[in-house]
């Protein structure tokens, strides 16, 4: 993102929303104040924010994978940079743990100058803490899913593949306050990564002292961010308190943030309407109701594209319980059977139909990728739309290639998913009815309220189909492309897709800085993934429809990183 030598801030060209200090009006894609918004009126004595909690599974920044984990980690730890919004509502990458950084003319050497800041136990955050984090992220013995995130760094991939030593990875501490990262090749997307949790500093001494329970025991952690974790009741709630030793504590107005697990949408709505929750996403019939109320000034409404794609994953690692999921024609028949428009309009009543993996809200330089490149699966879908006979013929061709009986009524596929609400159950039934009606096959549903039970079955390979999704980590199509390369660390969670053809196309991006050429390669990769290989079946791009109480000021809803950036928010007029 940044291209000049000494960099302090950068505008990212995607619109996000920060709630302004004024209240009483409905906002849609509106702009707000920057992180140091003026507070001309007196703040409320009670500076408490109440939010929903997506239960984190770990507090280990190198091992974090889910949105709930990133939400917490970004508020209790401080990486090199943070994403805020400027006065026009545009995302801006601002220095955080690093007060500035330099980039060499060839784009390979990045030198970060750290500010004076410390951990919650009083020790200083050092450049070595960042080095330790990157080396640990890449440790092949750890096998962290996000190891690929650091592959831009010189010898990072080779170290993960056990071909070089850790000392040969292009990251070093020149002194306590100077971190140097050397890239293997110029990587236009690298700067967009530096605010991400996987690269946060760590304390190896604290990890060692914490033992096997360190990752999930908040009392064994030290914190460097705006807040610290004060309480954590598993599967229920987390309480954050302001970190008095944070380097920019004067800008943090909130004293307490309560995050609570609430699964049922009706309960979320009731809590929001009674001001027990301060920010919620619109769901089902509540969205239309709240939009009308927001127009009357009851609270604030923010809608924007969310850089996220939901998709179907197919078990290509073991070929599934059916033994047929390794066939591309069968996978494609299942993909093309999905009426994406109907799904979006009848079940969700929000979001956008998807025929590619790169969603709305992802830019390629100054333009949104989707505005320039056709969705890879759209033409194929139009060719068989509402034609069950063509879909069944394609499925039978796949069976024939496998030497299987072409009697579709004898085919049974196991579809696994998590279930935490009545909406989840409706979605599962929708998939079952769609495939049974259009393809003449049988679908066995297996749903789990407990994620660990779901993950155990998924990891055992005893399934055929699952639901997956990916939320962009930074504003570049690469964040949706590199997770599908062989042994990326994430494909295994979505069915285990891998392809020599995909890997070969991906290599064209190495060192390529021409925007048009990169765009063409991204489009080619998308076509290989979803159309030729049918490795996954994208069906929906997400949007974000947030409703915020009028008394909540200066809160940001960034497209990347945490869903809600509240470190500079405050309460006024409750």
UniProtKB/TrEMBL annotation:
GO BP field: peptide transport
Molecular function, one GO term: peptide transmembrane transporter activity
Protein's UniProt keywords contain Signal: yes
Alphabetical list of CDD domains matching this protein: PBP2_OppA
Domain Solute-binding protein family intervals: 92-490
Gene3D superfamilies xrefs: Dipeptide-binding Protein, Domain 1 (3.90.76.10), Dipeptide-binding Protein, Domain 3 (3.10.105.10), Periplasmic binding protein-like II (3.40.190.10)
GO cellular component: ATP-binding cassette (ABC) transporter complex; cell envelope; periplasmic space
Signal peptide: 1-22
Recorded superkingdom: Bacteria
Keywords for the protein's UniProt record, in alphabetical order: Signal, Transport
Family: Belongs to the bacterial solute-binding protein 5 family.
Protein name as catalogued: Oligopeptide-binding protein OppA
Species whose genome carries this gene: Clostridium oryzae
Gene: oppA_2
């Amino acid at each position: 993102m940044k291209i000049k030598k000494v960099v302090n801030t950068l505008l990212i060209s995607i619109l996000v929303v920060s709630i302004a200090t004024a209240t009483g009006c409905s906002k849609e894609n509106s702009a707000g104040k920057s992180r140091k918004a003026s507070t001309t009126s007196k703040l409320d004595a009670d500076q408490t924010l109440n939010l929903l909690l997506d239960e984190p599974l770990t507090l280990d920044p190198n091992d974090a994978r889910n949105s709930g984990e990133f939400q917490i980690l970004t508020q209790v730890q401080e990486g090199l940079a943070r994403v805020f919004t400027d006065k026009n509502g545009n995302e801006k990458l601002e220095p955080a743990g690093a007060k500035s950084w330099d980039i060499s003319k060839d784009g390979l050497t990045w030198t970060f100058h750290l500010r004076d800041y410390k951990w919650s136990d009083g020790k200083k955050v050092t450049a070595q803490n960042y080095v330790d984090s990157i080396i640990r992220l890449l440790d092949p013995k750890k096998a962290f899913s996000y190891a690929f995130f650091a592959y831009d760094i010189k010898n990072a991939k080779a170290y993960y593949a056990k071909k070089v030593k850790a000392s040969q990875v292009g990251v070093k501490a020149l002194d306590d306050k100077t971190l140097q990262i050397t890239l293997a090749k110029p990587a236009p997307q690298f700067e967009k990564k530096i605010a991400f949790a996987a690269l946060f500093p760590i304390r190896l001494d604290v990890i060692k002292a914490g033992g096997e329970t360190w990752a999930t025991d908040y009392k064994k952690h030290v914190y460097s961010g705006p807040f610290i974790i004060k309480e954590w009741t598993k599967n229920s709630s987390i309480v954050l308190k302001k970190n008095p030793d944070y380097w920019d504590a004067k800008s943090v107005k909130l004293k307490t943030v309560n995050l609570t697990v609430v699964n049922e949408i009706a309960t979320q709505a009731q809590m929001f309407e009674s001001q027990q929750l301060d920010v919620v996403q619109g769901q089902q019939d509540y969205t239309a109701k709240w939009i009308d109320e927001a127009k009357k000034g009851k609270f604030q409404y923010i809608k924007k594209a969310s850089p996220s794609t939901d998709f179907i994953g197919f078990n290509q690692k073991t070929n599934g319980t059916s033994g047929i999921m390794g066939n591309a024609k069968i996978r494609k028949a299942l993909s093309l059977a999905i009426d994406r428009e109907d799904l979006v309009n009848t079940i969700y009543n929000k979001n956008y139909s998807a025929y590619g993996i790169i969603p709305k809200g992802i830019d390629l330089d100054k333009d949104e990728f989707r505005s320039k490149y056709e969705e890879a699966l759209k033409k194929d879908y139009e060719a068989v739309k509402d034609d069950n006979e063509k879909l069944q013929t394609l499925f039978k061709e796949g069976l024939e290639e496998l030497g299987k009986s072409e009697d579709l009524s004898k085919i049974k596929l196991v579809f696994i998913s998590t279930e935490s609400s009545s909406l989840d159950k409706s979605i599962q039934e929708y998939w079952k009815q769609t495939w049974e009606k259009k393809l003449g096959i049988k679908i066995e549903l297996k749903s789990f309220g407990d994620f660990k039970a779901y993950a155990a079955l998924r990891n055992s390979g005893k399934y055929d189909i699952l639901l997956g999704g990916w939320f962009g980590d930074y504003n570049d199509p690469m964040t949706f492309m590199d997770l599908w390369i062989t042994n990326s660390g994430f494909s295994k969670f979505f069915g285990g897709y891998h392809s020599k053809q995909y890997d070969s196309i991906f290599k064209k991006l190495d060192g390529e800085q021409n925007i048009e050429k990169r765009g063409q390669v991204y489009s080619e990769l998308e076509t290989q993934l979803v159309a030729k290989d049918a490795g996954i079946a994208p069906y929906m791009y997400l949007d974000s429809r947030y409703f915020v109480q009028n008394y909540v000021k200066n809160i940001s809803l960034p497209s990347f990183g945490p869903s809600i950036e509240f470190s500079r928010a405050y309460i006024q007029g409750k």
